[in-house]
Amino acid sequence: MAAPSAPRPPRPRKEPQPLVIPRSAAEEQRLRLERLMRNPEKTVPIPEKLNEWAPRPPPEFVRDVMGSSAGAGSGEFHVYRHLRRREYQRQDFMDAMAEKQRLDEEFQKKLERNKMIAEEQTAKRRRKRCMLWINAIILCLHLSAEKSGCGN
């Protein structure tokens, strides 16, 4: 058996915090920042990006089900309807992914085009600066040659 230990000292009491109800989004954000800054050493949990929803893959084997026409039993219609809904959902998802990919490609092209334009402007300004320096050096050489009397 463990020996009886000395009683623990009582826990320090937390100061009761006044209840503050944020009246706007900015005030709510300010309160959250104040709460974070009370203990700057504490790590902040950053949630990871959630996976995008994707439909289930189509079944590899579909039972021989009658369509929605007459002659099919009531159960077959529900099976047909669910299969049809899933297929439409899958096609809509594929269309949305294709549209997203197209928009991403357009955005990348736009970024590349903007980068090229910025690079061209930078090169133009660089050439201009170099020409200013070269002209200044030529002017200094010309003036120094005139002072020394070598230009005659």
Automatic annotation (TrEMBL):
GO CC entries: nucleolus
UniProt key word Transmembrane helix: no
Listed InterPro entries: Prkrip1
Keyword Plastid: no
A molecular function (GO) term: protein kinase inhibitor activity
Record keywords: mRNA processing, mRNA splicing, Spliceosome
Stretches the record annotates as Disordered: 1-56
Span of the signal peptide: none
Protein family: Belongs to the PRKRIP1 family.
Name assigned to this protein: PRKR interacting protein 1
Organism: Falco tinnunculus
